[in-house]
Fold this protein.
Amino acid sequence: MATVVVATDKFKGSASAEQACEALCAGIRSSAESWRCVPIPLADGGDGTVAALGRAGWRLEHVSVVDARGDEVSANVAIAGESVVVELADICGIARWRGRLRPWEAHTIGLGMAIHEQITRGRTHVLVAVGGSASTDGGLGLLTGLGFRVLDDGGSPVDQGLEGLRAAARIVAPDDIEALLHVTWSVLVDVDAPLLGPTGSSFRFGPQKGLRDFELAEADRILWNWAQVLADYSGVNVADEPGSGAAGGVVAALRAVFDATVVSGFAFVAKQAGLAAAVESADAVVTGEGHLDVTSLTGKVVGGVIELARANDLPTFIVVGDANTATRISLPEVVITLVDLVGDRDRAMSDTAVALDGAGRVVGERLMVGGAFPGTSAPSTG
């Protein structure tokens, strides 16, 4: 029996990675009954990372913390031995936001609280999944949640968020700093942006979090000041290092204060999920996400799965909600968009499971008549 691996990211706001994989597999099975479908829901360090690790065998544990507004929330962390993965998106990410974004007040205190609790429980390797943040606080909240004090020129604690970061002048370590430094720190990222400049936290990602165009330069100047404060504390300047601008600068703080190692979120989750071995044994591959553009191909799930499929010379389908035209036509793989399939963006968003089932049927039909590419023979189903 031939096998198709279905390995997608979430369809943000419409379907989790698990829901997307199951809906696609249901469609494939209905039109390609002789094919075996293997769903492998994935993530790249953003929303759904902890859930993906839970499906890969990590133990999930509830934590009670606060979100980017300071409201109490319950989230999950993933644990394996002495290692713990804490997901920013599930604690204080933009996915938890309700109503108008508040880019100057949003913070990451809850992330620091969750990590501190895990360290007190004996975890010795902390992996922070940082995608999907709602804030541009440079990790100020993270450090506060870990027990650090960030003071202004007068020696008073600064307010939280980007607005509070404006007055930051000095970092004071907590009494238990030795316990924090004896932990191994890693950061799971999906972007390589530096902290500052036109490709950094404020200019590249600030608009997603509510910053208006005329506020971006000011935010960048505030982050520049914060980079100096971090450098004064740690003795190293990480502002220009690739990835330091991820999660509104949280990675810069983790690198400067804890010498955290930056790791590809996709590569980490894919390894835990056994993706490489599954693809090597497959006859075809399906991947996907909510929106396909050039960023999908660098550090994200879709790009990583495509690379594995190409290495194994497998016919590949990319199922997405919608797609950037230039990116779509640049790819040799078959791209199926839910918007094209159902003819309406709103319907594709509201009835995503049904649309994904339909996309799976299209994939199944193509598999039965000759694979993903013109002239490709369907693998044997015997």
Remarks:
- The CA atoms of residues 119 and 180 lie 7 Å apart.
- Residues 216-234 form the longest helix (19 residues).
